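Risk register update: the risk of archive-format incompatibility is retired. Evidence:
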Amino acid sequence: MVFSQDVPITVSGEEKSQTEFFAELEEKSGYKLFYLKDWVDGLHVDKDFVDATLTEILDSILSETNLNYYVLENEKRIFLLQNGIIYDDLPLGFFGKQDSLVQGQNTISPQNAPPPAFFAETNAQTTDRLPLVRIGKADRQDLRESYSLSGKAINARTGEPIPDLAIRIKGRGTMAITDEQGNYNMELPAGYNVITTSAMGIKDSEREVIMYNDGSLNLNLGESLEQLDEVVVEADAVSNVEEAITSSEEIESEESKNIPLVLGERNILEVAKALPGISSAGEGASGLNVRGGKTDQNLVLLDDAVIYNPTHFFGIFQALNPFTTEKVNIYKGAAPVEFGGRLSSVFDIETKNGNVEKISGEGSIGPVTGNLALEIPLKKEKSSLVVGGRGAYADWILRSLDDESLSNSEASFFDGIVKYHHRFDENSEVRGTAYYSKDKFSITSDSLYNYSNRLFSVRWAHKLSERTNGVLTAGNSDYNFGVDYESEGNNDFELDYAINESELKYKLRTRLNDKHTLDYGLTAKYYSVNPGSIDPKGNDSNVAPVDIEEEQALEGALFLGDEFKVSDRLLLSLGARYMFYSAMGKATQNTYEEGAPRNESTVQDTISYGSGEFIKTYGGPEARVSARYLITPDFSVKASFNNAYQFIHTLSNNTTVSPIDTWKLSDLNIKPQKGYQATLGFYKNFEENMYELSLEGYYKRMDDVLDFKTGADLLLNENVETEVLQGEGKAYGVEFLLKKNKGILNGWLSYTYSRSLYKFDGEYPEERINDGKFFPSNFDKPHDVSLIVNYKLTRRFSFSMNFAYQTGRPITYPVGTFRFNNSDYVVFSDRNKYRIPDYYRLDLGINIEGNHKKKKLAHSFITLQVYNVLGRNNPYSVFFVTEDGEVKALQSSIFGVPIPSITYNFKF
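Archived output:
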């Protein structure tokens, strides 16, 4: 039998609207079409059909839509259907027979066939009830029990992606978590579902979804208006236990506002020191030591670009505007596979995206600094600009002091940041960040020191397909310092140093299926180092100019990672990087005699390399392996192992980090550092995630780490390899952390037991330290306790406390004297054999908020804080002087008395 719809007809589709086309189709075929007009709005028919059947025409024009059709032959009617299909026969086996529906290559038993989609109208009281949505287009040849749903979660106010959003299927145990770009992918049963979303600061939502086939759904979600109790550090409740990566922490910049710190300054890096495994050599010391590693072993990123010195004024203040900083993710163990180049940790600092709805801002006025940040919408719901600036007015304070020795002192700094963010659509966005900071200081000295950071970065995030997202980043960083020396003699000079790096990285993420998510890509970096130059200042200076040869190098990596969900309990994160590094010319390199100590008298040859010529190449594979096993839904055990290469080093013979420490690239004579770390941890949440408990143990080994020879001269040394040693290090420890995230009383308690030991055992006595035995590092502090407490007295008044205790750091003491050739000489102990007194400090603060009226020009709060309430004269260092033939020990302290402060904060 030949049906009427199979009779060939000719119909023209060009230059016709959809209604005109359907009218001609009805006239030529004799069939009446039934549909809703808004279903076909936007449908374009741009070709003619010659001798085509009605079904061929409909199949063609509806192939790229969510519309199906049903033909009622007897009445010559055609019904267009949105997403679904109509069954006019009961499936085989409906009455109990064990027949099956055969659909292409897939066989679906009748009892497992997707059910019809029915839904009832309901009202949600506590969540946003979003409109029902139909996903996919039903296909008789591809009926399945479940379909894939993917998309992106976006903050409806700011346009920013929403990471760590929990998406659940109501009534089922299935759940997905959005990644850092807000992307998600999950499997939903065929037919009717209700999905719910929840995240901190985002209003909970419910949405009815009917799954007809695979498809995508972007979630535009509003911010929560609920007044929450303040929380100091709050990791995502799900990721804390369920993610595979070990030893990671996230700190929101907003969370630092109630923690009492020196001079009332918000400092996200200082807050990090209160977490287990992170410390510094002393109060006011620049740089962080993570799990027994040196300060140069931390990769600090600001919007994907390296920032070499993220502090002001010897580490007392951070060089990051707290009002433009969103958060910092800290990785102390096996970091995500995209990061590399450092042995100990990654500090991934993110800047806020601006408000795309209205102009807003935030600022503060404190005893030493002023701070302001603005968020400016450029195109509503599309693009915005963040502008932040802060500066210190310590110069005015120094000049006002009644101390003649300080009248000519100078101590000032400033930093500024600009960030542009534009969202083209749900699948593509771009951001650009520019940052600059500058420090100048001269305290009762004839030398003016200055150092600065400059960086910029551009990041393009885009969606290549339903399963693949890409991020392309480019950045440049520059750090330099200088010394401007003036004295009464003829030896005035100017000294300069600079390091510059440029990086290009492309990262892709592909969700293969429910079990495998791949991260892969490549990165390339170019280093340029000016090791220093000195020039006479003025015509009368007798200083001879010195200009050390520039250093250059290339660094690159390929990386691949797989998050493998073995089962609901077992999750693996497997990754590999291959690192490549090559020192480059134009340069000269010394070779030294074999069987002799390395010094200027044993130089065997000097080799010259042309511009762009490779001097020495290093590299090798790196592993990132982590595993998580869920013992219960809120209790997990994790383990990880990683190894890393580091090709850039700091050269310093100071006890703590100095702004004039220099960075040195690996070359013919200085090998890259290598590190290996294993971690085991247990993680438990209590009382609906109110409490978080973690216990981690780690062991780290380091090879070819750098230290200096006794009396080393490192600055402006053309043969600096003769002044340094390379040896091995080991670090191990146990870290405990208990956090309370909710309630009027919240905060955390952390305790770390750790050891950090190094050994330098060369072939010759001058290449050994402590006879080639392990000795404690400068920052070896076995016991470290921190307690952070916030107590909300009322809605407007809160109390905060910060307590810290640390074992005194190691020091080398003189243990005797001897006389030779009528001169007295001091005999020192083994390096770092003794310790300075233990360190402890208590800080208190009161936070007073303004009234909570909604319609105000600006909302404000005042913080009253006292740093070092107990007036503990904690030693920063102990040094020795000879007076009247006697050796005397003296102690220096940074803050030996209580330091009160008051800061006014405002937000509009």
